[in-house]
Amino acid sequence: MAGIQITEITWDSLFCAVNPKFIAIINKGAGGPFLVIPVNKVGRIDKEYPFVDAHKAPCLEVQWSPFNDNVIASCSEDTTAKVWLIPDRGLTRNLSDPVVELCGHQKRVNTLQWHPTANNILLTAGGENKLLMWNVGTGEALLEISGHPDMIWSINFNYDGSRFVTTCKDRKIRVIDSHSGEVLHEGMGHEGVKPQKAIFLRDGQIFTTGFTKRSERLYALRNQEDLSNPILQDELDTSNGVLFPLYDEDSGLIYLAGKGDSAIRYYEVNDDPPFVHYINTYTTSEPQRGLGFMPKRGLNSMENETARMYKITTKGIVDVLQFFVPRKSDLWQADLYPDTRSTIPALTAEQWIEGKDAPPKLMPVNPDAAAQAAKPKVQVAKKANILAQLPPSQEPSYQNDSSPQVSPASSRSSQSRPASSQPSPRIDDDLGIVRVERQAQPRQASRTATAEKKAEPKRQEPEPVLPKQMVNLRSRADRDDGGPASAGQRRAASELDRIKREQARHVDSGPSATMCDEYTPPAPKTNAASSRHSVATSSGVDGNGRVPSNMDELLEDLMKMKTLLRQHERRIRLLEDQLADVTMSHAFEL
């Protein structure tokens, strides 16, 4: 906005008040007028813009009601305080008829303050050093508080309105009960003779601003039980402007703005030493003549705006100062916006008159965004468990035992295989050991297994680690005299029976047959020459094409055949061992 002719009186006030609907500015003119302009209006304000023709003498301060954005109170040097009702769409003509006129002071009314929790309760301070508590609904004075020896500079209620703090020209700070007017605590404030301000913090401590004897501006944090000894005190500069503390009780931030300054300092107050933490300073080239502080209800919470001030410069321009907290997300930031004061009073005027106190009622800063954030973000539809339908994965089990281990999956698969596919032991008569070898499955079984593998989904399963061989040593006595016959022995015995049946066809029964049954041939000696002989398969003919003539030659040929078979079996076992080694190494590589 531009073209504002702000008042030129020398009283130490902010000359401005703002709420989510309107901004009120005390302007220059005959009597004590002030402007009421919608906050969304921009551009130059016409000189003929309607105003509130409030008082017959200069207006000193204006305050909006905390529970009705259309109700504003003003005080003036004409010894009166008045309450006005502003239309919803703003002024269309000059307003000169107040809703209530409060006449009780003999001198000018310096300052005023609305009660924070009780409806229609207003506190005013007069130049006769007297405080009056008003019920603006009826226009009657409820309580008169005296006892200040000099001019009262500021008044401010605590969080629930049960008490308030005042600063006086006698440089003392007083905490007074709201219902009885009794001075609860009293202490010496700042040493300077210039005006000092005091406000209640949410936790009950008191924050004050003032001057030293050398006119240096400073601030202090005090405990209301010991006002003379501040918890913390810090000097700022040597300017002459009075410092006004603007307190945001929701976030714990205090903004210090001085009349005639071009800078606004802001601090955070918490329980961590040194309790008042400096954040930053906002500086412009234009000094401020008036300043209005927007309540939390009027902020743009979707852009993370934490404070907004309306600064009126000496050139009649209203600058909007917005303070933002940068966040990457565009969602509702609940940590920046705790619940703030509601427009619904916690007490009626009658309840407060009866002596009741109550904390303020709270409301969300952005009710729609808060309600949306409270809903669940993801709505999960109830469906069947997909993971339960998948086949279980088979993983190899790794143990720290030094002996080879087999995974449970491989053990189960080995138990489910038929007996024909299990490894069968084989006895080596020459070496005296038992070897475990895998026998080949029949072709039909292998075809069935191949078809089952093609039908199943392909998945890579770790091959079980099989031992190269399992060795059991046998004694020579067990190998020669007892134990199961080997495959070579069984084949030799069957060949011997067949030869006996052939000989029985050509040789007559007699002593030779008896001798054949009783004869036990000596163990033949194997040599390189005998290993090169061939074995007759379908008849009793040796490798040279002749038929043995007697039993001795027959037995000798049989022993040679047995020896040759053993040699071939030994070579087969060696080849199988080599094949097992190659298979094992390939499995480890995979």
From TrEMBL:
Residues 450-462, 492-508 have a biased composition (Basic and acidic residues). Belongs to the WD repeat coronin family. Residues 551-585 form a coiled coil. Residues 358-377, 390-548 are annotated as: Disordered. This is Coronin. GO terms for biological process: actin filament organization. WD repeats lie at residues 52-84, 102-144, 145-186. Residues 391-401, 527-541 have a biased composition (Polar residues). Pfam families: DUF1899, WD40, WD40_4. It comes from Acrobeloides nanus. Residues 1-43 form the DUF1899 domain. SUPFAM superfamilies: WD40 repeat-like (SSF50978). Residues 402-425 have a biased composition (Low complexity). Keywords: Coiled coil, Repeat, WD repeat. One of its GO terms (molecular function) is actin filament binding.
